[in-house]
Amino acid sequence: MAVPSQIHHFHFSNCLMNASGVSCERKEELAALDDSAAGTFITKTATLEAREGNPQPRVETFALGSINSSGLPNQGLPYYLQALADFQAAKPDKTYFLSVTELEEEKIYKILEEVEASDFKGLVELNLSCPNVIGKPQIAYDFETTDRILKRVFSFFTKSLGVKLPPFFDPSHFDQMADILNAYPLAYVNCINSVGNGLVIHDEQVVIKPKQGFGGIGGETIKETALANVHAFYQRLRPEIAIIGTGGVCDGRDVFEHILCGASMVGVGTTLYEEGEGCFASLTEELEAIMKEKGYQSIEDFRGKLKYMD
Ligand SMILES: CC(C)(C)CCc1c(C(=O)O)[nH]c(=O)[nH]c1=O
Question: Where does this protein reside within or beyond the cell (predicted)?
């Protein structure tokens, strides 16, 4: 029971995977994902050194989703490179994802130089939702910084690289970002990261401790924004740049819709957080039932074929 997919020469036995950040910080969590119905996994975004992250409570769920200000808690790059080497040795034919970022521009180059020098064979995801300079927006909302970073990264980086993008909400931003991304040999873009700086209130109080309760929103409530970002980039990017659709996946229909919008792989975050890795099997069953009912044999029968009203 699976719906296979691929990104370039990387084949995946199933089109579902976790969203970076959820159930993927420690090796034991990655092992559970590795043994699940998911076609692959992506690590929690790694930084050069391990990080504690923000004070708890820092992740909470609410009726229609989740909010988090985790603060990049991770075990540090060496931990993930070693873990990935072990997973790869056990399953030589499987492809995995490593997510990385850093909190200053120069360190972004340093961490990618370390990944480049490693034996990692999978795909690398550069998380562009990181704040760069204090007082400036996150990298992906600063177009010239994004362009400068990608230009310098691709002057030395030869492994397969994708970028994780926050949501955009304006056609001119889709246009500007797509123009930048199309200039680089990216393997894929992953749309979207959580919807930044939401606020969840219970009674009269915020529900997470960091940032006076402000945090990234995920789950059911962000699906329409996620689908729009997947499709907007599908419409604009060169076909060589694949799209991973992440955000708002609660059932098989949501997976189907991400693929209809152009996604080749679909990331699951909040639902994985709430249901555990068994969600991949149920999402796959639901997707297969929809495909059967519609007579679709494979993803390519409907990927990107969203119909407009003429
Ligand atoms: C928000 C950052 C801490 C700068 C990056 C890590 C991250 C986090 C996080 O670790 O707080 N949460 C998200 O929903 N998306 C992210 O990309």
Answer: Cytoplasm
